[in-house]
Design goal:
The complex is a heterodimer.
Chain A lengths: L1 H5 L21 E10 L6 E11 L4 E5 L6 H8 L7 E6 L2 E2 L7 E4 L11 H5 L1 H5 L4 H14 L15 H13 L5 E5 L7 H18 L2 E6 L2 H7 L2 E6 L4 E7 L14 H11 L10
Parallel strand pairs in A: 3-8, 3-9, 6-7, 7-8
Antiparallel strand pairs in A: 1-2, 1-4, 4-5, 9-10
Chain B lengths: L9 H24 L10 H13 L2 H33 L1 H15 L7 H8 L3 H24 L4 H9 L4 H38 L5 H10 L3 H29 L10 H10 L3 H4 L9
Classes of the chains: A alpha/beta, B mainly alpha.
Chain lengths: 279, 287
C-alpha cells in the first residue's frame, strides 16, 4: 500500500532498477511444459519444451506471431487449462488450478457492463469473497492511479477503449496479486494510446514491483517494457531465444529511436524472417 | 423501429394530427359514398358511439378486466416456467439431452391449435385461457433464456475462473446478467402471444372476456361494437407492451448508456451520479 501512495508523485519512481539476477529467478519455474490440443481431429502441438524461470518482480515479455502458443502459455499460468507434459512451479508449490494471487489482464477489457467502474475493479474481491469494505480504499487508490477517479461511478459503456483497459488493469491489481499476466492488453488500442499506455504500465511496474508476464505480438512494445524478451516461434510453439534487454529505466519513447533499441528489435525480428510474419 | 426522433418537430406534429383527422373523415364518409352496408363497415362515429356506450356502461371494463387477468396470469405462469426450464436446460447437459426432443416437437407445433382441447378440458372459465396463454408464453422465454445463458463472453468466464471463482459464481455474476437482454426480449414476445392466445381461446368458448364479447357482437351483427372492442384490445396490447419496454429500460439500464465527455463527467459525477441512468445521452457525449 505504501508503494501505491508513493506512486502518485513522479519523483517517487526509481530511475534505475537493476535487472533481476539469474540466481533469484525461481519465483516461477516453467519446467519442460508442453501442451497438445485435439479431441477428435488431428492433434496440434501448441507448446513444446517450454522452459522458463521468472524472478520475483521481473518483467518478462513473450513475443511471437499468432499461433505460437503464447496465449496458451498464459492460460496455463492462469490455471485455466492443465499442461499436457511438464509442470509449473510457483515457489515450491506445483500449479494445479487458478490461484488467488494472480491478476489477469485480457486483450479486451472484459468489464461487466452492469457494474460501475468501482464495482468492476472490486470483481476479484467479490469472486474471492473478501471483505469489500477492507478493499474499498485500495480500489479507489488504484482507480486514481490509472487516472479514472472522476469515473468511479460511471459504467463501462461511458468510457473510451483506453479508459476501459485501464479499469481492467486496476481490477487485476486490486486483490494485491504477486503476479500479473497480461495477454496483449493494448492490442485493440490505436497506436498513440498504446504508446501512452506502455509508458504508464512501466510506471506502475516500477512503483509496484509486481512480477509481470506480458504477451504481445509487437516487438517494439516487448523491448520497450521488458527486462527479458522471450521470442516464440509457431508450429509447434517453442522458445527460440530469451533476450536480456539491458536498457536503463525509466525508459522513454525517445529511446525507441536509439541504436541499441533498434538492435534488440532487429535481433527479435530476425527470428521471423520477413517483417510481415508478425502481423 | 428506425429512429424518427429528428422528425418530431411542432410542424410535423400538427401535420400528423391533420392526417389522423383526414383518415377519420374518409372512414366516416366512405360507407355512404361507396354504399357499404353498416354490418360490413360501420362509420367512425358509430364505432365511437359503441366505444362510449361500452365504456360508460362498465361492460368493457368488466370484460377487459377478465381478459387482462387471463393474459397476465398466463404470462406469469408460462414466463416463470420458461425461465426455470431454460435455466435447467442451460445448466444441466443431461437434462437438456432428454428434454430437447420434446421441446423441438412442441416448438414446431402451432400452439393455439391446442386451445379447443383446453376449452374441452378446462371449461368456459378463466382456466382454459390461462393455460393457453401460459403455453404460448412459455416457449419464447425458455428458448431465449437458453441462448442468453449460453451467450456469456468467454473471456469474462475465464476472468472469474482465473480468480478462483466457482461455476455457481460464473452463473450469478455473469451468465444470468448476460442473459437478461435475451430474457427481456423473450418476455416481450411472450406477452404479445399471451394476448393472442387468450383472445383466440375466448373466441372458442368463454363466459366472459373481450374475445367472447366480440364474438357475441359479431353474431348480433353489431359490427360497430366489434370494432370498438378491437380498439380496446389494441389499447390493452399497447399498454402491456409499453409496460414491458419500461421495465426493460430499468433492468437493462446499461444498454442505453453513451460515451461520456470527460469534462462533463467531472462535473456531474460529484453532484448527482443518478442522472446517468435517467438519460443515456449526456450533453456533448455523442459526436
Amino acid at each position: 500500500m505504501t508503494l501505491l501512495k508513493g506512486a502518485s508523485t513522479a519523483e517517487a519512481y526509481p530511475k534505475h532498477r537493476a535487472p533481476v539476477a539469474s540466481s533469484t529467478r525461481d519465483f516461477i519455474r516453467i519446467n519442460e511444459v508442453g501442451k497438445l490440443f485435439g479431441g477428435r481431429g488431428p492433434v496440434v502441438t501448441a507448446l513444446q519444451d517450454i522452459k522458463l524461470d521468472i524472478g520475483l518482480g521481473e518483467f518478462v515479455a513473450v513475443v511471437g506471431p499468432s499461433g505460437c502458443g503464447k496465449s496458451t502459455l498464459l492460460r496455463i499460468l492462469a490455471g485455466l487449462i492443465p499442461t499436457s507434459t511438464g509442470t509449473v512451479w510457483f515457489g515450491n508449490r506445483k500449479l494445479e488450478g487458478p490461484r488467488h494471487d494472480i491478476g489477469v489482464v485480457f486483450q479486451s477489457p472484459v468489464l461487466f457492463p452492469w457494474r460501475t467502474v468501482l464495482d468492476n475493479v472490486l470483481v476479484p474481491i467479490d469472486v474471492q469473497k473478501l471483505d469489500r469494505k477492507k478493499y474499498l480504499s485500495r480500489a479507489r487508490e488504484l482507480i486514481e492511479l490509472v487516472g479514472l477517479s472522476e469515473f468511479e461511478q460511471r459504467y463501462p459503456a461511458e468510457l473510451s477503449g483506453g479508459m476501459q483497459q485501464r479499469v481492467g488493469i486496476a481490477r487485476a491489481l486490486v486483490h494485491d496479486p504477486a503476479m500479473l499476466l497480461m495477454d496483449e492488453p493494448f492490442g485493440a488500442l490505436d497506436a498513440m494510446t498504446r504508446e501512452h499506455m506502455n509508458v504508464e504500465l512501466q510506471r506502475f511496474w516500477l512503483a509496484q514491483s509486481k512480477t509481470i508476464l506480458f504477451i504481445t505480438h509487437s516487438i517494439s512494445e516487448a523491448v520497450f517494457l521488458a527486462d527479458r524478451v522471450v521470442v516464440m516461434t509457431p508450429r509447434p510453439g517453442r522458445i527460440a531465444e530469451v533476450l536480456d534487454i539491458d536498457l536503463p529505466r525509466e525508459r522513454t519513447l525517445d529511446m525507441m529511436a536509439t541504436p541499441p533499441f533498434g538492435e534488440y528489435v532487429r535481433r527479435v525480428r530476425a527470428h521471423f524472417g520477413t517483417a510481415g510474419v508478425m502481423d | 423501429m428506425p429512429d424518427l426522433s429528428s422528425l418530431d418537430t411542432p410542424r410535423n406534429r400538427i401535420l400528423s394530427i391533420l392526417l389522423l383527422c383526414l383518415v377519420l373523415v374518409i372512414w366516416q364518409v366512405s360507407p355512404a359514398l361507396f354504399k357499404i352496408p353498416a354490418f360490413i363497415l360501420p362509420t367512425a362515429s358509430a364505432v365511437a358511439e359503441g366505444l362510449w356506450r361500452g365504456l360508460t356502461g362498465g361492460l368493457y371494463l368488466y370484460h377487459g378486466a377478465v381478459t387482462l387477468f387471463e393474459v397476465l396470469a398466463g404470462f406469469a405462469l408460462g414466463g416463470s416456467l420458461g425461465l426455470a426450464l431454460g435455466v435447467a436446460v442451460a445448466l444441466n447437459r443431461r437434462f437438456a439431452y432428454f428434454i430437447y426432443p420434446y421441446i423441438i416437437m412442441f416448438q414446431s407445433m402451432p400452439k393455439v391449435a391446442l386451445a379447443p382441447l383446453f376449452v374441452l378440458w378446462f371449461g368456459l372459465g378463466v382456466t382454459s385461457k390461462i393455460v393457453t396463454a401460459a403455453l404460448v408464453a412459455f416457449f419464447p422465454v425458455m428458448i431465449n433464456t437458453i441462448s442468453g445463458l449460453n451467450s456469456a463472453d468467454k473471456d469474462r468466464i475465464d476472468l472469474i475462473l482465473s480468480l478462483g471463482g466457482s461455476e455457481r459464481q460464473v452463473f450469478t455474476m455473469l451468465r444470468f446478467p448476460s442473459a437478461l437482454p435475451f430474457i427481456m426480449a423473450g418476455l416481450e414476445i411472450a406477452m404479445a402471444l399471451s394476448l393472442i392466445g387468450t383472445v383466440v381461446t375466448e373466441f372458442l368458448g368463454a363466459d366472459a372476456g373481450l374475445g367472447m364479447l366480440m364474438q357475441s357482437m359479431n353474431f348480433m351483427m353489431d359490427v360497430a361494437g366489434s370494432f370498438s372492442v378491437l380498439i380496446i384490445l389494441a389499447v390493452v396490447g399497447l399498454v402491456l407492451n409499453q409496460t414491458l419496454i419500461m421495465i426493460r429500460h430499468r433492468v437493462l439500464f446499461w444498454e442505453r448508456l453513451g460515451r461520456v465527455d470527460p469534462e462533463a463527467a467531472a462535473e456531474t459525477t460529484a453532484a448527482e451520479p443518478k442522472t446517468r441512468q435517467a438519460d443515456g445521452a449526456l450533453p456533448a457525449s455523442q459526436q
